[in-house]
Amino acid sequence: MNCKGITLAAFLLVGGIVNSHAQDIDSKNVPAAVKMAFSKAYPKAKDIDWEKKGITYKVDFDLGKTDHSAIYAATGKNISSEKDIPNNQLPAAIAKSIKAKYPKGRIDDVDWISTGGKITYKVDIEGTPDVNVWYSADGKFIKELAD
């Protein structure tokens, strides 16, 4: 496995572990450095909800009519950012791959994810069975999980 694959696998593993221990928290319990970094990055955010996930802080919020989330270290460093995007903004190479791999499936939801400057796409596919698939920005298949 190459270095990029190992890094991605480690991130997904840590993300899964962190996600399994999430706890909603009040914004007053979020470190000042995290709140400052978030407000600077997303000054127009609305409907803000915080969670403590292990040693990180996840914030779900809206910008306009679009759902977003971001994960921060306690120092205020952004670890990852995610947003819903319209299905028609999915790169053509990914849409083509999905159509070939899941001919009876229907794209239900698309998330654009930025982690350490690397862009990935998570696509929820309804079909037989329902699955979530991840692709790199250049259209390479990463993984599939049952939904």
TrEMBL record:
Q: Pfam families attached here?
A: PepSY_like
Q: Which UniProt keywords apply?
A: Signal
Show the Gene3D superfamilies listed in the entry: 3.10.450.360
**Source taxon at top rank:** Bacteria
Keyword Signal belongs to the record = yes
Q: Which InterPro entries match?
A: PepSY-like (IPR021533)
Q: Which residues form the Putative beta-lactamase-inhibitor-like PepSY-like domain?
A: 18-62, 82-143
The signal sequence is 1-22
* Protein name as catalogued: Putative beta-lactamase-inhibitor-like PepSY-like domain-containing protein
Source species:
Pedobacter petrophilus
